[in-house]
Structure formats: C-alpha cells, structure tokens
Write a structure and sequence with these properties.
3 helices; 24% strand; seven-stranded parallel beta sheet; UDP N-Acetylglucosamine Acyltransferase, domain 1; alpha/beta; Dynactin subunit 6; globular
Amino acid sequence: MSSQPTPARPGPDRRSSAAPKRTSMLPKPSSIALDPSVLIAQHAQITGTHPVTLGPNTVLHPHSKISSALAPVVLGEGVVVYERAKVGMGVGPELDAESRRSSMASAQNSANVRSEGTMLGRNVVVESNATVEAAEVGEGSVIEVGAVLATGCVVGKYCTISPYSFVPPNARLPDFTVVYSGSEQRSDKTLQLRPDILEARNAVHAKQLDMFKKLISNNVSKWMV
C-alpha cells in the first residue's frame, strides 16, 4: 500500500489571499451628533461636509443614505430611514454644477424656506427608494416608497406622501395632507378627527422601533469617534 506524499506547507513569504479592507473615499461630515440609542445598520451611509444630528431611537436601515454635502441634516427622535432611501439636500437627480448652484441660491433666498438644511421631525418615516431634500418634514409624516420631496419644501405634521408622488421645490403642505396620484392633494380627516387612531398609529411605530433593535445589527460604533 503506497503512502501519499505529505503536501508541502506554504512558505512564510507566501502572500495572504485576504484582500485588504476597502476604505471609503466618501467625505465624512464635519461633526456627527449621535444619541446613544441610535441604530445604524451596516452599509448605511452618512456623508457630507456639514454637521449631522441623529436623535433618540433614530433607525438607519442598510444602504440608506444621509448626506450633508450642501447643508446640515437633523433627524429627530424615532425617525426611520429605510433601504436605499436618501435624505439631505443634493441627494436628488444629478445636476451639473451651474444647476446645483442655482438650486441652492433659490432655496436659500426664498422667504418660505428654512436655510438650515434638512430637518425631519419626531417619528418621521422615509420608506425605500424615497428621496427627501425638503427643508422640514413635520412629526409623524410618512414618505412612502419612491416618493420625492424636492429642495426647500416644508411638509406639515402627520402628512402622507404616497408611493412615487412628487412634492415640488419650496412647496408648503399643511398638517394632515395626503399627496397621491403623483401630485394630487387631500386632507386626512381620519387622523385629524380621530385622536384614538392617531394614538394607535404612534403605538405601532414604537413597537416597530423595538423590533428593529432586535432584528438589525447595530454598527453605530463606526460613527462614534
């Protein structure tokens, strides 16, 4: 019975097959203020040159993007940003340099637009593939799948922007507005006149936040410098 030759061990100078860890080339914000309860999933992006603030129980899902490239971003308590959703001025369709400067000047010079950047209020939800460049989104509002809030618009409390709808630049939506069929609007009388339903909706949101903490691995330490 012939014996099999013992395989030779690799030499000490053999190059490792493990590829070096890729370092992100995207700029990091000048400052990031994080509440200890923030949940940031792996592959979520926070980029830009202006400050970013994430309030208590904020949740950033994988591949969500927060950009402060043009102005600061503030996410209030309980904000949820889902997969591939984008928040911050400049995250919309690509513009050439001249168009970008013109858009910024228009937003900053408008009397009806906040100049501080993008701010999402308490319990705002930004669903998958939605784009939010708005100046402000009020408490409890939901931006559904693929919807777009253009630069400088102000959305009131408990509004619903239905899938793939569009809110134009510098528009103002009153509280409890529903945008549907692209750009049609109506008032949500159910939420407005039934505080019990509004309370139940808030309770469901709170349960979702707890569920996310159990299901999503938290990568927040990467951003705590």
